[in-house]
Amino acid sequence: xxxxxxxxxxxxxxxxxxxxxxxxxxxxxxxxxxxxxxxxxxxxxxxxxxxxxxxxxxxxxxxxxxxxxxxxxxxxxxxxxxxxxxxxxxxxxxxxxxxxxxxxxxxxxxxxxxxxxxxxxxxxxxxxxxxxxxxxxxxxxxxxxxxxxxxxxxxxxxxxxxxxxxxxxxxxxxxxxxxxxxxxxxxxxxxxxxxxxxxxxxxxxxxxxxxxxxxxxxxxxxxxxxxxxxxxxxxxxxxxxxxxxxxxxxxxxxxxxxxx
Amino acid sequence: xxxxxxxxxxxxxxxxxxxxxxxxxxxxxxxxxxxxxxxxxxxxxxxxxxxxxxxxxxxxxxxxxxxxxxxxxxxxxxxxxxxxxxxxxxxxxxxxxxxxxxxxxxxxxxxxxxxxxxxxxxxxxxxxxxxxxxxxxxxxxxxxxxxxxxxxxxxxxxxxxxxxxxxxxxxxxxxxxxxxxxxxxxxxxxxxxxxxxxxxxxxxxxxxxxxxxxxxxxxxxxxxxxxxxxxxxxxxxxxxxxxxxxxxxxxxxxxxxxxxxxxxxxxxxxxxxxxxxxxxxxxxxxxxxxxxxxxxxxxxxxxxxxxxxxxxxxxxxxxxxxxxxxxxxxxxxxxxx
Amino acid sequence: xxxxxxxxxxxxxxxxxxxxxxxxxxxxxxxxxxxxxxxxxxxxxxxxxxxxxxxxxxxxxxxxxxxxxxxxxxxxxxxxxxxxxxxxxxxxxxxxxx
Lengths: 260, 337, 98
Hints:
heterotrimer, A: mainly alpha, Ferritin, 10 helices, C: alpha+beta, Ubiquitin-like (UB roll), three-stranded antiparallel beta sheet, 2 helices
């Protein structure tokens, strides 16, 4: 049971953190049409997070709610990929500020949705039938997110000199964070063991093919990746998640007895 | 959402220039007037007097600008929404405002002005937008109060516009109004839930209403006596109900809703007038309204600069898509050759 | 490569089929750099509330419209062809529905 809960939290935290990040563009998008498109991505992700938290809360069975899981856990308890918590710009420390870069947004959404189309596809046969149902719904959404981000990746890479440079910089910055995809956390191992989760290592070939194909079409190069492998999914995050959660959770925590 | 008196002149000192019509114009004008009088619709390719076209472009673009500037005060709370459900509702709502802006820009474009030109008007500070968005959203209840009061006021204004004389505008308004009813209801419901919560939550609601109430009344625009463009707008069927009548309608509808909610509207002069069968209300601060419309409200500069920055920062993204589209076209042509 | 400021994205007209069996209906327009992008943006702009099962996008510039000045010669000649309508013909009641 706890293996399933931990695994659900990993999936839910991924969705809520990226949903939170993508929603930062609302009202600031590069063109009105795209503002609406990205808000749809955010809405899908927050919808996924809610269903996953609800299932986790149900399994906990102690009266926990989706919002307690999203708003009253600290950053060390969050199990999302580090990739998803990074701000929409290049490498900077947690308390630095910089303009949002749409290339970072697009590249991140692409790298993540290229993984999730395979994860959700596999989870349609999860031993947890609720999760299997969520996976079937989320697969359609992730497929659309992949399409959206891949389209833009190609347009940026094969667009102007500036867009090419920005897209390449974003790929160079973000791709190393995907190494975390291929390590297996204890929670994942237990979920795989229970027939609830998917062994991500089995998805690497398919993910590589998607990424290489898109990068080639976008005339971008895939950088060599070496060194530190991020560990967000075991609770060891970057400096950025603390700020993201401080903002996201502030109101709920200021009024713990409030109802919304 | 939102609209105020869209008969506010874009630039101070702007005046209508009278042009002497030629005989041919007079004939076309007569046909145009006849169609308006018969409550018919004008479509983009139809002949229309230049002043009608200009007034429409101004009104529709002010309306569109209001929608997209209006994304910002509520967008301010997306990252801090206190529950995932409210976060999703708020994103969907702010996204809708963007959609409404888009429908309206499209309607204005049918009059021969491009979106770039319309945005240029906003970004340069020449074009106006609804004054209500130049106030800060200081606590979470502002989000609910905007839905209830600001969208409520907007609906009052927009429903009559579904019957306006210009086809593309009226069709855009039909779509907008359909989506808008969700906005007001979600806002009111959010406040109802907060009123059943803690004292701190009830205080938030009252605080938000105190700050917003008078701005909402002003949103309907100057009193009829001071609205020089109103009569022409009425004549042309692009304004259907006068500012004061709409304002009264709004007050009458809102007072009972406030009672159910359990908050006080901040107007000691607000009381039922048996003879008029309407609520009387106090004096609106028109000086503040005009200060804000003219760019000197608390948030005008932040709102405008944020729109300009988003547009400028997005230039390379728009350029990329266009450059790519061109390359694709060239490749296709080469292949065909 | 041309990286100077380009003109704005072209305008597209959007047609949505609300459900299988119905025709595509014009619902508005939007800006997009190319057709595939226009299609995706139409999905996000015009079908947020399950308004559609199919979308067409057409470059606005590709539409040729009838001229309002020719409305008379275009459409009025159909007005007196009342024999084209079923109600023009009287059929005895005992024949029933026809």
